[in-house]
Specification:
The protein is mostly beta strands. It has one domain: Transcription Regulator spoIIAA (2-Layer Sandwich), CATH 3.30.750.180. Helices cover 11% and strands 30% of the residues. The chain is built from two helices and ten strands, in the order ββαβββαβββββ. A hairpin with a 2-residue loop joins β9 and β10 (126-131). The model has no long low-confidence stretch (mean pLDDT 85).
Amino acid sequence: MGLIQYLDNGYVDLGGVRLIGVGTVYTDMQNKLVNSLNALRGGNGINIAVIHQYIEGAPYIYPMPNVDVFMINEKPLAQLGIDYFAVGGHIHEHGLKHPRINAVYSGSLEVWDAREFEVYEYANGKLRKVKDVDPKLSTT
């Protein structure tokens, strides 16, 4: 149907937005990822990079195994001039924002953490819902 385009060290221009996709690299190969992003970014308009990587400094609670093996330093990413990093992989918290660069983790599509479940309280002989399940939609 042509609805999906796989971007691995590639990009697509959507009006004034360049969407860049790069693959995962090991920490000791992070310069390869930074160089790819630098070469793929556009000069005009908005640049959005989609990466599957742990960015140093993201305050995760529940990492996947080997987060440190797939870590990239935040400083070279911040210096690229990319407007937004849509991050997936290795961190499962929904909507986790990096504290210093414009990067957000989409999190897992499934409920991963007990804090995401709906919450009920029992009072006066009745069960009452006090919180719905956290939404699992896009993060911006």
